[in-house]
Predict the structure.
Amino acid sequence: MDSQTSAMRTEQDALGPVAVPAEAHWGAQTQRSLLHFPFAVRERMPLEIIRALAMVKLAAARVNHAELPGEIVGAIEQAAQEILAGEHADQFPLAIWQTGSGTQTNMNVNEVIASRANELLTGQRGGKQPVHPNDHVNLHQSSNDSFPTALHIAVALSATGHLLPALERMMAQIGDLAEQWRDLVKTGRTHLQDATPLTLGQEFSAFAAQLAQCRGELAAALEDGVLEIAQGGTAVGTGLNAPPGFAGAMAEALSAISGLKLRSAPNAFAALAGQEPLVRCSGALVTLACALNKLANDLRLLASGPRSGLGELKLPANEPGSSIMPGKVNPTQCEMLTMVCAQVVGNHQSVVLGGMQGQLQLNVFKPMIGAAVLQSLDLLATGIDSFTRYALTGLEPDRRRIAELLERSLMLVTALVPELGYDRAAAIARLAEDEDLTLRDAALRLGVDQATFDRLVRPETMV
């Protein structure tokens, strides 16, 4: 909507009249925010937060039904449901960068719901009659408790609806590969140097175990903090202007609307003053990013080549890799996922700094914290899903290359240590490396008989 060329109408707030585009559902406070925080569209408040706030307003209308005329409750409910269905997305133009409590976005949602409710009841868009954005839509609420509640709901829905299912699919695929390759013996590597052997299945089982630990950390962060909501604390945590039982009733209503098992925060003062649950959640995402970064980098190393690298794995060829080198195929999914992980780590630094900005009764970096955590969730869910589809699916071992490198590995000499001792085994390995001999040839030259070597150096028994 072009606010420069549209016909205008006049709306009022506590500071006086404001010209608002005639076709807009938003009102005076939203228009003032557009004037005072003129950030680019790409910095817009995430729609996940808008939808979560619409859930708060829907729940409040239901909880407050005894205090409001039935037609107002019904109109508020319909307007909120339309937002949840994806309608009116262009009516939420505000930037992330606004007041730290999210007041402008809370009022944006209040104004849009009130305007749409008024349109439903009177045919007239905007205004404050018969539905008032503060007195009716925001009844018994404050931005200070509604906005952090919306952040928790948005984060929990994104985590449970997108990231965790994508992670489960990746873990299942890795588990299948680990089982397929359980007996494929290969060279191990530590410090990027040859080490004793293991199976390719064992190597992949480590990825699965790392991801399982990360899944547990994220699930714990959700259960032990994010699913606790501030709603009912109102301005500073005392619950002023909210009736007794409002917090519990809102948690119950929001649970029914969202499908989440929400509960009131045990201490509303802490829920407003701090953002530790989202900081912890972001920390769990960073832990996941660490594990994913290792997975992607390991696959990139193991698939390096095809002629001049390790070449033990064959990544799917998804697209040409070079504009100048014909036939080149690059590990693009690995590069994508590691960039995602880097961004998640960067977002976490913002979340940590934001979490430190709780002065007295309110944390004032809530919009930035919420947007950063939601971006990390979206990046990880999308990146994991793409990596599973286009890197793990179709991944194949190069059995010939694996066997070749295993046979050439000097660290098979470790199998000789129990009978020959460390120093004699080390001399065999040094001779093999210095004169480019096979380990067998070096051992025979230093007096180990062939039968002893063949009995001791059996890679399949070393895993």
In short: The longest strand covers residues 193-199. The chain has three domains: 8-139, 145-400, 409-461. The beta strands are 8-13, 16-21, 185-190, 193-199, 228-229, 263-264, 313-314, 358-359, 362-363, 396-397. The chain has a mean pLDDT of 95.
